[in-house]
Amino acid sequence: MGKKVKTAITPTRNEDYPAWYQEVVKASDMAEHSAVRGCMVIKPWGYTLWENMVSRLDEMFKKTGVKNAYFPLFIPKSYLEKEAEHVEGFAKECAVVTHHKLEQDENGKLVPAGKLAEPLIVRPTSETIIGESMAKWITSYRDLPLLLNQWANVVRWEMRTRLFLRTSEFLWQEGHTAHATEQDARERTMMMLDIYTKFVQDYLAMPVVQGNKTESERFPGAVDTLCIEAMMQDRKALQAGTSHFLGQNFAKGSNIKFQSEDKEEQFVYTTSWGSSTRMIGGVIMTHGDDDGVMMPPKVAPSHVVLIPIIRKPDEKRKIMEYTQSIADALSAKDYAGRRLVVEIDDRDIGGARGWEWIKKGIPVRAEIGPRDMDNDSVFMGRRDKSPQEKESLKREDFINKISDILDDIQNNMYNKAVAFRNENTHEIDEQKEFYEFYTPKDKGIHGGFVHAHWCGSAKCEEKIKKDLSVTIRCIPFSSRTEQGKCICCNSTSSRRALFAKAY
Questions:
Q1: What phi and psi values does residue 189 have, to the nearest 5 degrees?
Q2: What is d(CA 260, CA 43) in angstroms, rounded to the nearest whole number?
Q3: What residues does 111 pair with on adjacent strands?
Q4: Which of 60, 92, 457, 495 has the fewest beta carbons under 10 Å from its own?
Q5: Cβ distance 159 to 168 under 8 Å?
Q6: Is 84 helix (H, G, I), strand (E, B) or coil?
Q7: What residues are paired with 342 via a beta bridge?
Q8: Where does 51-168 show beta strands of DSSP type E?
Q9: How far is CA 308 from CA 291, 323, 326, 331, 369, in A?
């Protein structure tokens, strides 16, 4: 029996994947549980990652004409009731405010007082209250399209929570647009899905599958929901972004009308689309290893950490000056549309410094000791390689090649994730093989992605979900038309759906 390799994270992914995930979040100092059940505190390292995501996505949205706005956190209950399917879909997750103040009772305890005439829902999503504003702002075809987005927090009262992946309160963006024609609205729905796809693949290094949700998996009240699905290292799927064509359902509920060029009064067509801090969980589970998280360089909170190695007091001044000169040269550079961010860690804690940065996932570490300074060089380690794998680079080469090094790390991370997904994606045509695939003997293994025929029946979809805890993640756009037999009932099918266990 071989000697067990020592890792920074215990347990490892293979030993206990859910516990590994929680330990990675803790060890990377990204977030922690709050005193409020189901909510989280996002710490500076995690929040800077989120800010970098926000900055890039916001820029991509605005290039398509979208403008940011802000709408109330509280939504009157009657607003949700305007769209029956919508309220049914969110009713069990709503946090409700029924009173507007606290008073002391005869025992000195604070109790709710001042009952509201109408309960207020703490924002689970904003279609209804934004629709109320749209109804006031839109009167003519000249007001269209109206392209809005807001960066906000939302509350969905989850029973089982996990940091970043599923919390009662989380951060997100929600886009809401109104259009004169169905075609324009559908084109916008697809445009925003393509933006999510580009962002997640190019910046987060997460390969995704684009497709349509089934009717039972659609956003409540939507006519069509488009999504992107990514594979995590436990082979489960994570929905990384959605874009919804809402038709005229919400427009009719909120009475959003406009006068056309022909002087006819019509209801607008609306869309909504969103992504959230759940993407951070996706980054961790796509790229993390048994030493911690691995940050894609294009969104990493910092790109490089310089670690001066000072063994004698009289070496400190020269080594720190040399280190600072490298930091200054690197900090003057741009990478992936923003200024390159450099850390200098001169804490007197020995080798623990390097391991802390490995666990935090910083892309590049560079140690600088007396010998490195004498040779005008640095001793560099990359997060996408073994912690023990380091190389000496001349100072100027390190500075001049840093962008290429970061690009190489980014590409390696993406290519590794693609290879893993492809290795764990299969086509299955026999029901017995399908059921065996999703009921493995090894604890914690979830099979992977399966492209299998589906007849379109909600009954078959529900049976597979009940039997195996496997859902149809989407009908991939890339799914070709072909004759086959439904994996559940054996009736005729013309396309394959993407099945997986999911978060």
A1: -55, -45
A2: 50
A3: 103
A4: 92
A5: no
A6: helix
A7: 304
A8: 67-68, 74-76, 95-104, 110-122, 146-155
A9: 22, 7, 11, 17, 6
Pair 20, 12: CB distance under 8 Å: yes
Query: What is the per-residue pLDDT across 120-179, written as a single tens digit (0 to 9) for each?
Result: 999 999 999 999 999 999 999 999 999 999 999 999 988 788 999 999 999 999 999 999
Helix (H) / strand (E) containing 380 = strand 377-382
Q: What is the DSSP string of 164-220?
A: TTB-SEEEEEEEEEEESSHHHHHHHHHHHHHHHHHHHHHTS----EEEEPPGGGSPT
Task: Give the domain 304-401 fold.
Answer: Rossmann fold (3.40.50)
Question: Could you tell me which of 123, 340, 126, 389 has the C-alpha nearest to residue 246?
Answer: 126
* CATH code given to domain 425-500: 3.30.110.30
Give 419-469 pLDDT, tens digit per residue: 999 999 999 999 999 999 999 877 667 899 999 999 999 999 999 999 999
**DSSP H or E stretch at residue 394:** strand 390-394
Burial status of residue 376 (CB atoms within 10 A of its CB: 0-12, 13-18, 19 or more): exposed
Mention every residue, 6+ apart, whose C-beta is less than 8 A from residue 260.
141, 180, 266
CA angle 80, 86, 87 (to 5 degrees): 50
Q: Where are the domains of the chain?
A: 17-287, 304-401, 425-500
Q: Provide the residue type at 291 as one letter.
A: D
Place of tokens 């001044």: 317
What is the spatial distance between Cα 103 and Cα 92, in angstroms, rounded to a whole number?
29
CA 235 and chain centroid, separation: 16
CA–CA dist 283, 281 (Å, integer)? 5
Q: Is the sign of the CA dihedral 56, 222, 157, 239 positive or negative?
A: negative
Please report, to the nearest 10 degrees, the dihedral formed by the alpha carbons of residues 26, 27, 29, 33 taken in order: 10
The answer to whether 156 touches 124, Cβ cutoff 8 Å, is yes
- What is the percent of the chain with per-residue pLDDT over 90, rounded to a whole number? 93
What CATH homologous superfamily does 17-287 map to? Bira Bifunctional Protein; Domain 2 (3.30.930.10)
- For CA atoms 169, 170, 171, 175, give the dihedral sign: negative
Largest CA distance in the chain: 84
DSSP 225-269: EEEEEEE-TTS-EEEEEEEEEEETHHHHHHT-EEE-TTS-EEE-E
Structure letter (DSSP) for residue 469: S
Provide the pLDDT for residue 1. 45
Name 100's Cβ contacts closer than 8 Å, sequence gap at least 6. 114, 115, 116
DSSP E strands, 443-495: 449-453, 471-476, 484-485, 492-493
